[in-house]
Amino acid sequence: MTFSTVKRFIAGVTCPKCSVMDKLRGYSEDGINFRECVACGFKDEMRVVSAPREIQTRVNTAKDNAVHRVDPIKLIDN
Ligand SMILES: [Zn+2]
Question: How high is the mean pLDDT in each 10-residue block of the chain (78 residues)?
Fold first, then answer.
């Protein structure tokens, strides 16, 4: 995957240098993915193939639906 050239925050990612979460921004420059921390100035080239953020999977969605599922009830007015 390749980031946009626009710097965007990567949710749920902790900075490997200062350990602050949600301060990393990912962006692409000349076809290379970079991540930078706005808290400490850390910058790194990302060579990993996997996406840095958690992917919404069918398993996660199904579990959430099960938790929040509400069984319909009938109200009978006598
Ligand atoms: Zn940092």
Answer: 88 95 94 94 80 61 58 78
CA of 34 to the centre of ligand 1 (A): 14
Between the CA of 31 and the centroid of ligand 1 the distance, in Å, is: 23
> Domains of the chain by range and CATH?
8-68 (2.20.25)
Quick check: helix, strand or coil at residue 55?
coil
Q: Write out 37-54 in H/E/C secondary structure.
A: ECCCCCEEECCCCCCCCC
Measured distance between the N- and C-terminal CA atoms of the chain, rounded to whole angstroms: 61
pTM of the full structure: 0.55
Reference 44, options 29, 62, 63, 59; nearest CA is: 29
